């Protein structure tokens, strides 16, 4: 995949050397308070602990040449009797949005989940006003299976719903 005529996008597992480029993406997205229900005051260390998945989960990065465009994390949605369903989260750098990076990361997560033997993938908290993400996920076969009304405090729109989305893998 190429991002708007630039170098092809490569998705690969996270390495410690990627963190300095991932942190500003996470920081900016979380501080905007528009798409993730994470504490906007979280420290860099807290963000790293939250974002970097331990095996058998996985954290990946999307790069085009030397530029880090986005990141994803994936793993089991729940332990025990719910461990057969995966979950994933995605963050794309502002400068890379609209170039297919999120789609490539989501497709990668779905392939990963299938290869790991998961039955499906569930997103627990997709902000309903995040139209780009909702549209992308629906295009990739996810369905909104429920919405928690007013569960997300958007800085401009006020309280909006959080969708739970699912698809078999």
Give the strand order, joined by hyphens, for the main sheet: 1-2-3-4-5-7-6
By secondary-structure content and strand pairing, the structural class works out as alpha+beta
CATH homologous superfamily label: Gcn5-related N-acetyltransferase (GNAT)
Q: Tell me about the biggest sheet?
A: 7 strands, mixed
**Secondary-structure element series:** EHHEEEHEHEE
Mean pLDDT: 95
Kindly provide the name of the CATH class.
Alpha Beta
Instruction: Report the sheet-strand fraction.
Output: 35-45%
- What's the overall geometry? globular
Intertermini distance:
22 Å
How many alpha or pi helices?
A: 4
List low-confidence stretches. none
Helicity, as a percent range:
25-40%
Q: What do we call the CATH topology?
A: Aminopeptidase
- The radius of gyration is 15 Å
Number of strands: 7
CATH architecture assignment name: 3-Layer(aba) Sandwich
Number of domains: 1
Can I get a quick summary?
This protein is α+β, with helices and mostly antiparallel strands and 169 residues long. The chain has helices at residues 19-32, 44-51, 101-115, 131-139; strands at residues 9-13, 58-64, 67-76, 85-92, 120-127, 143-154, 158-168. The longest helix is centred in the middle third of the chain and has 15 residues, at 101-115.
């Amino acid at each position: 995949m190429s991002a708007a005529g630039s170098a092809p996008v490569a998705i690969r597992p996270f390495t410690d050397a990627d963190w300095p480029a991932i942190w500003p993406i996470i920081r900016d997205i979380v501080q905007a308070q528009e798409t993730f229900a994470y504490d906007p005051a979280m420290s860099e260390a807290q963000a790293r602990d939250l974002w970097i998945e331990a095996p058998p989960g996985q954290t990946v990065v999307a790069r085009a040449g030397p530029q880090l465009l986005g990141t994803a994390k994936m793993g089991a949605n729940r332990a025990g009797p719910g461990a057969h369903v995966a979950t994933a989260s995605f963050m794309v750098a502002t400068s890379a949005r609209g170039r297919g990076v999120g789609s490539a990361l989501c497709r990668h997560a779905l392939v990963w989940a299938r290869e790991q033997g998961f039955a499906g993938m569930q997103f627990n908290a997709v902000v309903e006003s995040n139209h780009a993400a909702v549209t992308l996920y629906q295009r990739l076969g996810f369905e909104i299976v429920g919405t928690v009304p007013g569960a997300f405090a958007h800085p401009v729109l006020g309280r909006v719903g959080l969708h739970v989305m699912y698809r078999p893998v």
